[in-house]
Structures are given as C-alpha cells and as structure tokens.
Write a structure and sequence with these properties.
The protein has helices at about 65-75, 110-120, 130-140, 160-165, 170-175, 185-200, 255-260, 265-275, 280-285, 290-295, 300-325, 335-340, 340-350, 360-365, 390-405, and strands at about 1-10, 10-20, 25-35, 40-45, 55-60, 90-95, 110, 150, 210-215, 220-225, 225-230, 330-335, 370, 380-385. By secondary structure, the protein is an alpha/beta fold. Among the domains are: about 1-90, ATPase, nucleotide binding domain (Nucleotidyltransferase, domain 5), CATH 3.30.420.40; about 205-390, Nucleotidyltransferase, domain 5.
Length: about 400
C-alpha cells in the first residue's frame, strides 16, 4: 500500500510518500509547496531515486491549497522528477490534524461527519485546524476516489485519566465548553515511545517512559504501559515548558494584573503569551535556542537565564511524571532541540543522578541518530530518538483503511 502523508499549514503543504507494502515502510518521496497564496509559489521535492542531497526546486502557481495539491500531483507523475508514470499510484492519504478534542480518540476515515467535527474544533485550534481542513478538501477535489484518513495530534492523549486532564474551574465550564487539558504532539510522543521500547527490547505495554519533544514548541508526556497518562501542554499549546515564544506554565492572575495595568485586549494578551514570551521574551535576543547557547557562551546573562528556566522545567517534569507513574524506565529526547542539543540533554539529566540516571558524555556527543546516552549501570535509561510523525501517520492511515475493509483500487 502506497500512502501519501500531508501536513498543511496556512501557506504551506508538506508531504511524504511511503511504500508500506508488507511493512517495508520505504520513503519514496518528500516535498513542500510553500508561499501558497502568493503570485509565485515554490515546489521542492526529493525522491528515493535522486542522489543524496539532490532536490528538485520549481516555481509554481498555487493560489490556494487545491492548486497546491494539483501541483504536487502533477510533479509526482512528471516524466523527469516524478515517481509514478502517467497516474498517481496512491492507495490512501493521511492528514495531520492538530485538534480532535474529545471527539476522536483514534484516527478516522474522513467522512462528511468527520469533517464537520474537525470544523467544530476550529474555535479551540483557530491557527491549525482551518489549513488542515483545507488540505482535506483540496485532496477530495484533486485526488478523487482515494480514501483519506485524519490522524489527530490530540488522540494519543485521550487515555489521560480525568484527574490528570481537568482544571480546577467549576465543573460546568468543562461540561459547557469542554475546557480541559488536551495535549499536543501526540503523534510524535507515540512514535518515539514505541520506538524506544523496540530499541530497549522491552514490552511497550509494560514500560514507564517520559518523552520530551523539544523544539520551538515543546511538550513532555508520561507514557505508562503504552498509554499517555499526562502531558505538559493543555487546552492550548501554551501550557507547560518554556518555549521559543510561549510562556509555558504561569499564574493566570498575572494576566489579569497586566490587563488592568496596560488596558490590553484579548488579542494583545494572546500575542504577549504566544509570540513575545518564552526564549524570546526572557533573553531579549531570539526564540532560537542555538542563538541563545552562543550568546550565553559569550556571557549574556539573560540568554543563560532562558536556558536555565527551560532545562529546570524539563527536569522538574521528569521527576513529577516518574512520581505519577510510580517509576521510570526511560526518558526520550526528540524534536529539533531534543535530537541536537547535547548541552541541553546533559543539563536536564544531571540533577537526576539520584534517580539512577548518569549521562555518558561520549555517548551523548556521538553522531549516532538513535542512541542510548546513559551509562550501562543507570537504573533508568535516557535515549535520543529522532521523531518520525509522518511515518506514524502513514502507519495509522494504513491501519484505518485496512480496518475499514474497503477496496479502492
């Protein structure tokens, strides 16, 4: 089965193409249509047949997501750089959908009812669900007859118990508006937690794992016996860790105080918390951790402070989640920061030596992509595992289509 995985942003369409036949899980092609909506857009694609580092870059016209899907379709069957001859040989399309609220605890074959439910979630995911939905509708127009599957970032966290996901608001607020912790990055947390179980040669259903997806947006998840039991992000992706431009955890009364002092609107507060805070707000320099590390090395105190806050919260949540799960078998670092920032991993784990985790500097600094970075005698292992959300979406898409029992080709 050939699966096309699509992730749509407001002005972009990312895709990966997988051959999932007999569990081969081979990446056939990947690409991006960017600057959608402008007079000139750009299509970039790499295929398995190309030499390492080679890619095709073409100026295209894509005024909306439908035109972007049409461009992708044409390029994938192009005689020069395409992977198919004459016709797109795709069996199913898997879409990343950010928010499924309480409506979806697993991936779903897209139907009019599923689309309506995704649309209903726009009020709590106004930046992400609209382009996700636009991608679905674009594929329905251009790739007619091919089954589509929605894979939700929030679905993995639907196993959280009520005492973990409810806030201390009047219960009526939950009943009326479904205000609760939802969590995000679920596809990544699920992938790396499953993958580390394979690397450890352990039963996933018997492990206690803390996964750390660290990037410009960061979150952590407690995975006990194969299920998410708590996660740092909440009703929105604002809760939890300090991030590139987001505050993370804070006393909500602070905002009431600032609103009163500065006469801010809700849009002002939203911009303050989501776009002006985090690394950027604390350091006054950048939202990019690489820049902060460089500035901190030069003695810039506020850059170092932003790093210290970031690592402190990660350390704190590892300890908290170990307590919540009644033990800890592994910690997994993933995401752009988690996979690449040697210094950050060391700083986060160093205070946890009392829990039986001791980082081996040579292992931590090695060039291996998947690697165990703690010493052999460490009671809990610490791993680096590159995430592969697209492959996870492809796996789930294949499962849903096969489970549906329909023949499309």
């Amino acid at each position: 089965m050939v699966i096309l995985v699509i992730n749509c942003g407001s002005s972009s369409l990312k895709f990966k193409l997988f051959d999932m036949e007999k569990d081969k899980e081979v990446l056939m092609a990947e690409g991006l249509v960017e600057e959608i909506g402008k007079d000139k857009s750009r299509f970039t694609c790499t295929t398995a047949a190309m030499k390492k580092g080679e890619k095709s870059v073409t100026d295209v016209v894509a005024h909306d997501h439908t035109e972007a899907v049409a461009v992708m379709n044409d390029m994938l069957v192009d005689s020069k750089c395409g992977v198919f001859k004459g016709k797109l040989g795709v069996d199913a399309v898997g879409h990343r959908v950010v928010h499924g609220a309480e409506k979806f605890s697993k991936s779903a074959l897209i139907t009019p009812g599923v689309k309506s439910a995704i649309e209903e979630c726009i009020s709590i995911a106004p930046l992400h669900n609209p382009p996700n939905l636009a991608g679905i509708e674009a594929c329905e127009k251009v790739l007619q007859g091919i089954p589509q599957v929605a894979v939700f970032d929030t679905a993995f966290h639907q196993t959280m118990p009520k005492h973990a996901y409810l806030y201390g608001l009047p219960y009526e607020q939950y009943e009326r508006y479904h205000i609760r912790k939802y969590g995000f990055h679920g596809t990544s947390h699920e992938y790396v937690s499953q993958r580390v179980a394979v690397l450890m040669k352990k039963d996933f259903a018997k492990l206690k794992i803390v996964t750390c997806h660290l990037g410009n947006g960061s979150s952590m998840t407690a995975v006990k016996n194969g299920q998410s039991v708590d996660t740092t992000m909440g009703f929105t992706p604002l809760e939890g860790l300090l991030m590139g431009t987001r505050t993370g955890d804070m006393d909500p009364a602070v905002l009431l105080w600032i609103i009163d002092k500065e006469q801010m609107t809700t849009d002002d507060v939203n911009a303050l918390c989501n776009k002006k805070s985090g690394f950027k707000g604390i350091s006054g320099v950048s939202n990019d951790l690489r820049e902060l590390l460089a500035k901190a090395a030069e003695g810039h105190a506020r850059s170092q402070l932003a790093i210290d806050i970031f690592c402190y919260r990660i350390t704190k949540y590892i300890g908290a989640y170990a307590a919540a799960m009644g033990g800890l078998d592994a910690v997994v670092f993933t995401g752009g920061i988690g996979e690449n920032a040697v210094q950050i991993r060391q700083k986060c784990i160093e205070p946890l030596e009392f829990m039986g985790m001791v980082v081996d500097p040579a292992k931590n600094e090695s060039k291996e992509k998947e690697k165990l970075i703690t010493r052999g005698k460490s009671k809990a292992q610490v791993w680096v595992v590159p995430t592969n959300e697209e492959l996870m979406i492809a796996r789930k898409t294949k499962f849903v289509v096969e489970e549906a029992g329909n023949t499309y080709r």
